[in-house]
Fold this sequence. Notes:
The chain is an alpha/beta fold and 253 residues long. The protein has helices spanning 2-19, 51-62, 74-83, 96-101, 164-172, 183-191, 224-240, 243-250; strands at residues 24-30, 39-41, 44-49, 66-72, 88-92, 102-104, 109-111, 113-118, 139-142, 157-161, 178-182, 200-204, 211-218. The radius of gyration is 22 Å and the shape is globular.
Amino acid sequence: MPRLFVLVALLLSCALRLAHAAPAVRICDDIGGWPPYSFTDPKNPQRVTGAAVEVVSEILRRAGYEPTIALLPWKRCLSEVEDGTSAALLHATHNEERARLFLISEPYYSMNSSFYYLTSRFPVPPKISTAADLANYRFCGLAGYNYEMYSIPAARIDSGARTEAARFEKLRLDRCDFVIGDDEILRNFASMGQVDLKGTATVPIPGAVPKNFHVMISRTDAGGERLLKVINEGIAALKADKSYARIFKKFGL
């Protein structure tokens, strides 16, 4: 009888722990990294870190969720969130197609962009002052990324590269005149030795303003609307109690 009692007690204890276990939330992000917002820790390759990772993870844990971050090829990440394999993608810019496919959070950070060029190709900085000027040049983008906000003719963008380093290799091979680059990201890749910016300079993108980034949540997930509410309320809460500023300062932002 005592053994039976102990067994029943153990089973009940396990059941209670399972009942109170935090629900898992699978979030995906680009395997190429997005430092300082999301990237693989150089000292611990099994760990994904960054300002966006910590902000979203903190929001979800406060709400009783247990987030996991999966780094995937970008197009696969988009596909997984669309079909519900992943509950959300960590950060992306807004466009009409994404608004149709996903539930989109309030913006929780922004960054600046520039056109990067080779000074050997343009010894005098090129003047690109209007959207009409864009049709005269070739641009290197990244596969699956959103460049609609820049009004660059789609036919002028080569989006075959899957990494930042590959884009700059194309630039050096004269496959394009400019890389459409995010300044904070490229500075961090360069400091980590993963992108070579030597011999490059930048010019402003005509009419560009800082780009906002959002969490994008699967519409097929039954808990998607609830998750959207958690994210939006959590962004406001972290800003109100200074946790947001603390996390971003930790990553030099």
